[in-house]
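User: Can you predict the 3D structure for this chain?
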Amino acid sequence: MLRLLLPLLLAASAHGHGAMITPRTRNSVDYLVGVNSPKDWPSNWDCTNISGVSPSDCHNGQAGFYYSQGCFIGCPTCDHMSGRRQIDLCGLGKAATINDPHLRSVNRNATAGSLEDIYRHNPWRAPGSAPVADACGLAGGTPWLPEVGEAGDYTATKFAHHGMNGTELHEMDTGVVWTVGLEAEVTWQVLNNHGGGDSDRLCPADRELTEECFQEHPLDFVPSKQAIVTRNNTLIPVDGVFVSQGTYPPGSMWSMIPLPPDWLGPRCLAGPNDTDSTPYGCQDWEKNLVDGECEPCPETPGSDCSRCDNHAAPAFVPPCDGCQGSDHHHAIRDIVKVPSTLAPGKYVLGWRWDCEATAQVWSNCADVTLVL
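Assistant: Here is the predicted structure, written as structure tokens:
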């Protein structure tokens, strides 16, 4: 039985948004002029800071709006548009490498590779193999100046504007010092949850900041030390899920998001050229946040489909009370290993979140100094 929840709202149809909180990122620079979310998205102004005790202690600029979309596994480029088309856009046939239901953050009941496995072409299903528009994210998610739908917003400041590459942002002296061979802390936050998982990487600051450079130095997590950060600065240890097989670069370690998604957005929105005879075409009742059976998507240009595991129930068991969906009251604390093989000096930490329910990648970059 179908259960209509509520009319379609712009905020409810937003794609996944997230950002690194600590170390402070170059992407957060707009906090210096008091801009902590795009003007059209005031609900995303707040965040949870591991060193703070209230939302007012956390000012992260518009870091949660640096992303790439229309980025499908095995494809050479992103098209900047197809966030939820659920298709092998480039037709190169890249197969998902993350197929174990325990390693999937959404739609776990679908048989891997089946028509009902609609999210199989999205970044988390082969972590690191989807392209990005920029290694440090793209402000507003598209290379064009105008604002676009689905939270493709960015309020221009003297530091950045919609369509600006994150790699063009200036160095930000964070004062963060990591010791080679020891462990270091990274926290990040989900603002709109579409599952998947993340990786932390390093690139020497005197190198061009590219995916290739970051891929040379992926960081391993310390699985036993992952935790959820609450608004009162409490750490809740979690039994995280980490993968290092089927990832890119080969053997790199990724962490599945420990906060399960719930509502993913409108069930199905038709493309502009869809007709009544479009295979698996969207129906009028699907334009809203509505529960229903898992079904294949139309995969047509301009269509927007989240037909599977899209409801109020979490996609997997939450690690703590209230720790699910698009919850701004909890952040994720990871401990990473700083490789003993790295030379001391200035580096850029690249955080990459590969979504599963959408063809999107979130990227932030922060300056750190390595010492012996």
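Residues 211-215 form the longest helix (5 residues). The helical segments are 211-215.
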